[in-house]
């Protein structure tokens, strides 16, 4: 071969490599290499949130001197608000900002909130003066005044807003790093959710041990200052990984599209969609930005919405007015969101039950013998009891991923082992047990108090080991490993392709609704269980004279009814039908194959 021919061949080869690199450059980004940068943000978020929430009931009652029921409702209201803001963060990410920039800005807001919270806990002027347990004539306990509470609430609000931008976007942003059109990376996506929750659980474990110990034994200033510093460093780490990330462009406001379909269907409510089914509107060019992973196919459910895709004489298919005419894909987006609604609602009561771990269960622990061994002087902080929940959750995740999935795969043929709906159903079933068991433990705890003459002593230590509470905490952890991770997988997989952040935010809205439901339930029980003699199921200051076990068993009954409801919803649920885009070697799009998400989950 002459030198000129060889030179031309080498030049052609280099051009082909450059073209290949250019066309596939974005696909080569992402993957496991990005996980440390992304997970660092989530770890520090959980250190801050869990480190404070696990012990917040103690902070509100011992530092700010709030009554127990008021402190409990303050905690659940804050958790409810903090779990509602992810909808706002998800909207901003999906509509115009993208997930990376939403996470980055939200993290900065979060750091500001944590800094103010640390200041609030450190300066004596921002807290009421200390007093003896139960108060005394010399040192009466004074409840925090309006100004002191205002500083606390502003800090919590900043934290809630920042967390709202982090929580839904970190989950989806991490999953975005794996290209589902690549068969090798597709199987890593469902594993990602397991390991995301494992890393999150590990950080919670550190928060429940190290940070809670620091708060109880060194001071709240250090206990909140440490995660504040770590959160600042995580922002630096997240931004430094920018060149490595696989970025997906925002596709516009998903809420606007859903409203457009509703308005279009209403305007054409008199149209006969069934007889004009062949006229349903399709426009691949219009849908391309919102159907990156595949196009949703038409379903026969909720046919009244199909009228939004009926082409009439007044419509211009070439330049459609989206407030009058929408594509089948956009109509199916709304249908899919509606289909997911009942499954979402089933999670509310589960999180109502979870909320009690940080309120009444923690107060139970504070009255029990928390020594590791009888001869030891070291006591387990009451806020650290959730270690049993986290440990059980982490162990269950490992056993699920390494043992259950390979075993189940032999029978089901699914890469995930079992479907997400079955996984969630197992979690719902197990979640009935902790509250049932908690009621019996409370009976035993009060009996021990009565046997030792401590019924009317709110702050005395009852000689019954705190480890009696461990089984209920562990069962909560096992249930969460199945239900919460399954919830995340379900929302991410079953949501329309352009609504991943919004869909994963639905988990946090379920948590929010669960916390608000807890507030409502506690308030109602406290009000209507009050007797003329001053008795109450949920007394303000002394659980020993209350009927907390009745409250737990009421929760158990509600969860049994909720399980029946979930089973009915799961049986009737229709998996989204999707036509995946098939890409050949020349990067030209060909017709894909039709499948439902059942084939993937």
TrEMBL record:
<feature type="transmembrane region" description="Helical">
    <location>
        <begin position="550"/>
        <end position="568"/>
    </location>
</feature>
<feature type="transmembrane region" description="Helical">
    <location>
        <begin position="195"/>
        <end position="214"/>
    </location>
</feature>
<dbReference type="InterPro" id="IPR036259">
    <property type="entry name" value="MFS_trans_sf"/>
</dbReference>
<feature type="region of interest" description="Disordered">
    <location>
        <begin position="1"/>
        <end position="28"/>
    </location>
</feature>
<feature type="transmembrane region" description="Helical">
    <location>
        <begin position="100"/>
        <end position="123"/>
    </location>
</feature>
<protein>
    <submittedName>
        <fullName>Uncharacterized protein</fullName>
    </submittedName>
</protein>
<dbReference type="InterPro" id="IPR000109">
    <property type="entry name" value="POT_fam"/>
</dbReference>
<feature type="transmembrane region" description="Helical">
    <location>
        <begin position="378"/>
        <end position="400"/>
    </location>
</feature>
<keyword id="KW-0812">Transmembrane</keyword>
<feature type="transmembrane region" description="Helical">
    <location>
        <begin position="220"/>
        <end position="245"/>
    </location>
</feature>
<comment type="similarity">
    <text>Belongs to the major facilitator superfamily. Proton-dependent oligopeptide transporter (POT/PTR) (TC 2.A.17) family.</text>
</comment>
<feature type="transmembrane region" description="Helical">
    <location>
        <begin position="420"/>
        <end position="441"/>
    </location>
</feature>
<feature type="transmembrane region" description="Helical">
    <location>
        <begin position="150"/>
        <end position="174"/>
    </location>
</feature>
<keyword id="KW-0472">Membrane</keyword>
<dbReference type="GO" id="GO:0016020">
    <property type="term" value="C:membrane"/>
</dbReference>
<dbReference type="Pfam" id="PF00854">
    <property type="entry name" value="PTR2"/>
</dbReference>
<dbReference type="GO" id="GO:0022857">
    <property type="term" value="F:transmembrane transporter activity"/>
</dbReference>
<feature type="compositionally biased region" description="Basic and acidic residues">
    <location>
        <begin position="1"/>
        <end position="14"/>
    </location>
</feature>
<feature type="transmembrane region" description="Helical">
    <location>
        <begin position="505"/>
        <end position="530"/>
    </location>
</feature>
<keyword id="KW-1133">Transmembrane helix</keyword>
